[in-house]
């Protein structure tokens, strides 16, 4: 019996020691996603303008240290940015004949990313770590439906479309280790992916259905806060 107790005690101490060594983490974060470049452009004369507004993003991340200051990390990200229809509505109003009005409606740009890469962990003060990271992977982007309705009964609808391609992220964060196993995370990063949409249907009740190709350079500056569990 004493041998069994000794073995169990050693096993528990080994596990506890392993947890205290801060070998890795899992974390959830939420924050703001600010479109940049063409994705956030409101210039309707720019055919590549995404008219995307600031939105929300949610992260599920994990990391594992290979050495004391370097490790591997993975990220699942979901992001939503509204589409600002006002610039389109203004252009439509300027082009319509006198006496005819129109409305423009749309839903959100949405994206989902799975990225992997490396990160560093450098102590900058007691309980504070600086963690830069560089990640690559796959980003899926959904272009929102766009619906135009005129007071004379005419309608034009551009269908939603989803596509994906290579994406990357570069950023850094501050980790506050308020407990042996728990930490707060404050992250800033820039993410980018160029996505092509093919054969997007454009339908109308006054014209034949057509299909067009679009390309969007999705780019976003993101800031978020989260909580992590260290193991």
Walk me through this protein's architecture:
This protein has 231 residues and is mainly β. The protein has a single domain, classed as Porin. The protein is 13% helix and 62% strand. An 8-stranded antiparallel barrel has the order 1-2-3-5-7-10-11-12. β6 and β7 form a beta hairpin. The two termini are 31 Å apart.
Overall mean pLDDT score?
91
CATH uppermost class: Mainly Beta
CATH architecture: Beta Barrel
Spatial arrangement of strands, main beta sheet: 1-2-3-5-7-10-11-12
CATH topology: Porin
Give a count of the beta strands, DSSP E runs of length 2 or more. Answer: 12
Number of helices: 2
Q: SSE order in H/E notation?
A: HEEEHEEEEEEEEE
Estimate percent helicity: 10-25%
> How many domains is the backbone divided into?
1
Structural class: mainly beta
Cα radius of gyration in angstroms: 24 Å
Strand content: over 45%
Largest sheet: 8 strands, antiparallel, barrel
Shape: elongated
Distance between the termini: 31 Å
Poorly predicted ranges: 1-20
Present the secondary structure layout.
Blueprint: H1 2-20, E1 24-35, E2 55-65, E3 70-82, H2 86-95, E4 102-106, E5 108-120, E6 122-125, E7 128-143, E8 146-150, E9 155-158, E10 161-176, E11 182-204, E12 210-230
Antiparallel strand pairs: 1-2, 1-12, 2-3, 3-5, 4-8, 5-7, 6-7, 7-10, 8-9, 9-11, 10-11, 11-12
